Amino acid sequence: MGYAPGMPSIPRVRLADGTHVPALGQGTWRMGERPGARAAEADALRRGLDLGLTLIDTAEMYGDGGAEAVVGRAIAGRRDGVFVVSKVHPQHAGRRAAVAACERSLARLAIDRIDLYLLHWRGTVPLAETVEAFERLKRDGKIARWGVSNFDVDDLDELAGLAHGSGCAANQVLFHLGERGIERGALPRCRAWPMPVMAYSPFDEGRLPANPALARIARDAGIAPATLALAWVLANDNVIAIPKAARREHQEAIVAAAGVTIAPATAAAIACAFPAPKRRTPLAML
Ligand SMILES: NC(=O)c1ccc[n+]([C@@H]2O[C@H](COP(=O)([O-])OP(=O)(O)OC[C@H]3O[C@@H](n4cnc5c(N)ncnc54)[C@H](OP(=O)(O)O)[C@@H]3O)[C@@H](O)[C@H]2O)c1
Prior knowledge:
alpha/beta, binds NADP nicotinamide-adenine-dinucleotide phosphate
């Protein structure tokens, strides 16, 4: 696992099957899109691993497979210390197509097993068929476990009613200070399951650290805005955050969030500036 002198250790979260994984990882969306940038992107991911960010989230869709190739390059020679998450595109989520898509992902990642394989979002393939394909991939040792992404409460209820549906290990959804809808829906449903939520875009795709209200609260608390935004996500039980950061100073601000306890006055100011919705809202997604 990563060694990060002087940095806080990363807390761990329990997946539905009992495995413990880091509560903070690295996203890869928009990586692998330009061949000339791949070496630098792999270096950034390796630096993140050195800082203790040993869970990496990717998808066959990112860079049309390019992001998985970058991840493969980054973890070459150190695969054992990394928890690899990838996602199947809904168009490839059928009985046979999902198996073929997973094999293509494994080849790009240059590994023989994906630690967590997610359905990226719901498409037209019946859910039961996708679950069947995931269970087959698990039996064949090509994935260690499977989960879903962008699933709202009704999707999770449907999944729970399917044969092997209870095998779902995690649900990856949009969650940050400015988008708290899951607190009235998917988050309590996942806690009751129980399975963790993986919070994607925890910086609102980079917009949140520059938010004036957050900047003011962070200044009063003496914490960098990005660190505070992420510490707030991590303070929610059962949540794994997967921020994306290419720059070293950004990665350090991310790791620092693991050592932050939010004081009551700061929590109150956050609740005032970024209120939770009062009633159920449909799941937001990118
Ligand atoms: N399942 C899904 O449907 C889904 C959808 C979207 C995303 N995701 C996953 O979630 C990951 C994260 O989401 P995201 O990439 O959309 O956005 P994000 O993590 O919310 O934001 C990334 C942006 O924030 C910047 N940043 C990082 N650390 C910062 C800091 N300390 N201070 C200021 N800016 C900072 C990054 O800049 P630099 O890169 O320049 O450092 C980058 O531009 C994705 O990469 C992907 O793996 C999943």
